[in-house]
Specification:
Chain A is of the alpha+beta class and about 375 residues long. Chain A is built from nine helices and 21 strands. Chain A is about 20% helix and about 35% strand. In chain A, the strands form four sheets. Chain A has a six-stranded mixed sheet with strand order 12-13-14-11-5-15, sandwiched between helices. A six-stranded antiparallel beta barrel of chain A has the order 16-19-18-17-20-21. Helices cover about 20% and strands about 35% of the residues of chain B. Classes of the chains: A alpha+beta (about 375), B alpha+beta (about 120).
Chain lengths: ~375, ~120
């Protein structure tokens, strides 16, 4: 038996602040995004199901936690993102994209107006390129800080709010995509009501010297178990959340990726951000493919790179795929030629020489359960 | 009945000229939750070390190689409906395929249970 998919890393991976803790919890560590990270503890399916029914603790400290400050920080950042940032209220979060001049996606990220500064959370595997890009293009009057001594924990699942409220009073007042400063014991923590699983949940930024206390307090609650990267991937796939390096890349763009909600309407024509001309031409019909969901017949999953066919014509490529533990059948995200993206369109995916029947289904595969304002 | 093991974490039970092949408990543990297994068809000729089956877990796809050469007598049809047998009963009900052994001499290069245990302990 041998693995046909392996992660290749050139440099020795770094250790997370919770490295010893993960191993003591039974985590199986693998190299990912330059770190040794837990891929699973008791098993991907069990962790997946626990997140959907109770609450799971994910360590996402590999992600880049950045901030920018300066007199015109919001307007300067708007030059690199298609969203509005100047109109982002204090305590509000917004999903955004860093684009190249050609409109390709450098990374996806979350921007939060914390009051004193704008906080950016970027993908771990992209953070060094992102920092270089921001330093190169932001005005010299803007200060960019990398909080590399802060850990980031995600608590996700329907019981996340009741659990975290007991440890960090006040957090249950937050609604989806809002954030604030709270206290865990005597320590300041920055808590966001957001995540990457489709469930209600939180991300907690805490200094690395206190993260073990928080992790221990969370798993001491019988409603919480640790979960690894494997479950994080199957959960985000069901929630149809794109993963950078797979569903998003320099070769993809906000329009074909179906992320036009990240382009401010007011900036559609006027632009003023890097990548605007290319993005506008794609919005005006220049995009030939679209990211869609596929549900497969049978049990055999289609993985990244599998070709999608309509009769004998290749019409697209799978960018993420796997077996959905919640649905009980395989699902995939694929970039498909526009004319084949109507819901219900029957297609075939080629896996090891076999053609698997699949059909186009709406996103998300599994409904989101965010705690929205007014809900 | 003699049971042999490979460094690729397959087991081989030999009864007369017939061998039954599966993956070990260590292997299923590494794979995680199995969701699909593709076993070879009866009549297929397998070579030693050649592709024989594919096992898909929630995590990834992995190839299973034939530990010895031979002609497939039967693939385990139960795995089609219950791929999780590979996790729950890897070294019994979760067997992959049976084959008619082409050359019994090939068994000599395989490990016995004690040698395989020692091999896994060193991993």
């Amino acid at each position: 038996m041998s693995k046909t998919e392996t992660e290749v890393e050139n440099q020795a991976p770094e250790k997370l602040p919770l490295d010893v803790w993960h191993r003591a919890q039974g985590g199986r560590m693998v190299p990912f995004a330059g770190y040794e990270m837990p891929i699973q503890y008791e098993g991907i399916k069990a962790e997946h199901d626990w997140t959907r029914s109770s609450a799971s603790l994910f360590d996402v400290s590999h992600m880049g936690q950045l901030s920018i400050t300066g007199e015109n920080a919001a307007l300067e950042l708007e030059k690199l993102l298609p969203n509005g940032i100047a109109n982002l209220g204090e305590g509000k979060m917004r999903y955004s994209l860093l684009l190249t001049e050609a409109g390709g996606i450098i990374d996806d990220l979350i921007v939060t107006n914390t009051g004193p500064h704008l906080a950016l959370v970027v993908n771990g595997a992209c953070k060094w390129e992102d920092i270089a890009h921001l330093r190169e293009h932001l005005d010299d009057s803007i200060t960019l800080t990398h909080f590399d001594d802060f850990a980031l924990l995600a608590l996700q699942g329907p019981k996340a709010a009741e659990v975290l409220e007991g440890l960090v009073p006040g957090v249950s007042e937050l609604t989806f995509m809002t954030a604030g400063l709270f206290k865990f014991n005597d320590q300041h923590v920055w808590v966001s009501r957001a995540g990457y699983t489709g469930e209600d949940g939180f991300e907690i930024s805490i200094h690395e010297s206190h993260v073990e206390d928080l992790a221990n307090a969370l798993v001491a609650d019988e409603r919480v178990k640790p979960a690894g990267l494997g479950a994080r991937d199957s959960l985000r796939l069901e929630a149809a959340l794109p993963l950078y390096g797979h569903d998003l890349s320099l070769d993809t763009d906000p329009v074909s990726a179906g992320l036009t909600f990240a382009i401010a309407k007011a900036r559609r024509e006027t632009g003023g951000y890097m990548g605007h001309a290319a993005t506008l031409s794609r919005l005006d019909g220049g995009s030939t493919q679209k990211r869609v969901g596929l549900a497969l017949d049978g049990r055999l999953p289609a993985r990244e790179g599998a070709q999608v066919f309509s009769d004998n014509s290749a019409v697209g490529t799978v960018t993420s795929g796997g077996f959905s533990p919640t649905l009980g059948y395989p699902i995939a995200m694929a970039y498909i030629d526009n004319e084949f993206t109507t819901e219900g369109t029957a297609l075939e995916i080629e896996v090891r020489g076999k053609r698997l029947p699949a059909k186009v289904v709406p996103f998300p595969f599994v409904p989101h359960k965010y705690h929205r304002k007014g809900a | 009945m003699a049971r042999y093991f490979t460094e690729e974490h397959e087991w081989v039970d030999v009864e007369g000229d017939t061998a039954t092949v599966g993956i070990t408990d260590y292997a299923q543990e590494q794979l995680g939750d199995v969701v699909f297994v593709e076993v070879p068809q009866a009549g297929a000729d397998l070579t030693k070390g050649g592709d024989a089956a594919v096992v898909e877990s929630v995590k990834a796809a992995s190839d299973v190689y034939s530990p010895i050469a031979g002609t497939v007598v039967e693939g385990n049809a139960a795995l089609e409906g219950e791929p999780e047998l590979v996790n729950s009963s890897p070294e019994a009900d979760g067997w992959f395929f049976k084959l008619t052994i082409a050359d019994k001499g090939e068994l000599e290069g395989l490990m016995d249970a004690a040698a395989y245990r020692a091999f896994c302990d060193d991993l």
